[in-house]
Structure formats: C-alpha cells, structure tokens
C-alpha cells in the first residue's frame, strides 16, 4: 500500500516532508514528561528527530530529568541512522515505566547532538506534553514518535504501514 499524505493546515508539518536520512532539529518548545503524577523531566532544550513517515521523536537533555529517575537496564537495539541505543527504566513515586527511555551513548556521525539526551516512549508514562499539549503515542509500540496537532500523517506504525 502506498501512503497518501494528509494535507497540512496552517502551522502544521507533514511527516512526508521530513527527510530520509532523518534530520536532527533543535526545539525551544516546553517539553515535559510526567510519571507517577510528577513532572520527571522538563526542558526547552530538546532535539527533534524528523524522519519521513514518522512523527517527531523528542530527545531531552539527560540533565533535565530529576535525579534518580533514569535507571539503566540491560539490552540494546540498533538504528541504521543513529547507532546503538541503550535503555532506561523511568522510576518515580513508586511507579516504574520499563524500558521507556533510550539514549545513544556513541551516536553516529551527523547525530552527535544526541549525546547525553534521552527519548521517552509517550505511551509508557503518564503523559508527555509539548507546549502544554498532551502527546499521542505513535502506533505499533516500536517507534517513539510524539503526535501533536502540529503534525499530520499518515504515520508509520499504523496497521498496513509495515512496507513503508
């Protein structure tokens, strides 16, 4: 099935205009992560990874997470663009979100800016927000995209998108 991109409205971006290989773009939007009813990360210094057919993935500086929230865990995955990822459980107020965060300890060339930054799966925590808007998780459980009203799809991860 070939995707038919949705038409962006005023102030929106189409994920079909994002590049491949992906782009790394700074953002000064207020990005927050809530777990266990508390804000465990808050920043205006995030980085967005923009890749064709994917909603943006936000990477927050590790220093902008509360102390003790990021608990390293075993295992890794590999991204053809960014390199080997390491994972974190996020822990706060007696709540744990297993493998909800990841980082690239040695990002590949072109993605060096991701060093000391952590992405979060929005569907595994209480909520993630961008400038106060609650994020919707990218479908499929594998990708970490953050869907807001500022982006239009269709998005990879939804049923029927495996071959995109």
Automatic annotation (TrEMBL):
Which residue ranges does the record assign to the DUF427 domain? 31-122
Q: Which InterPro entries match?
A: DUF427 (IPR007361), DUF427_sf (IPR038694)
Taxonomically, the superkingdom here is Bacteria
PANTHER family in the cross-refs:
DUF427 DOMAIN-CONTAINING PROTEIN, SLR0655 PROTEIN
- The protein depicted here goes by the name DUF427 domain-containing protein
State the organism of origin: uncultured Nocardioides sp
């Amino acid at each position: 099935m070939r995707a038919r991109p949705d038409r962006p409205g005023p102030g929106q971006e189409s994920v079909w205009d994002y590049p491949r290989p992906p782009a790394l773009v700074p953002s000064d939007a207020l990005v927050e992560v809530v777990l266990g009813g508390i804000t465990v990360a808050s920043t205006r210094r995030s980085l967005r990874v923009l890749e064709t057919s994917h909603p943006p993935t936000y990477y927050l500086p590790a220093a902008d997470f509360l102390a003790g929230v990021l608990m390293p865990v075993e295992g890794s995955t590999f991204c053809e663009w960014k390199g080997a990822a390491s994972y974190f459980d996020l822990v706060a107020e007696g709540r744990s979100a297993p493998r909800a965060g990841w980082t690239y300890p040695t990002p590949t060339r072109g993605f060096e800016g991701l060093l000391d930054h952590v992405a979060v799966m929005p569907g595994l925590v209480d909520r993630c927000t961008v400038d106060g808007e609650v994020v919707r998780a990218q479908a499929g459980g594998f990708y970490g995209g953050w869907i807001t009203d500022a982006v239009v799809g269709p998005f990879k991860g939804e049923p029927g998108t495996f071959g995109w």
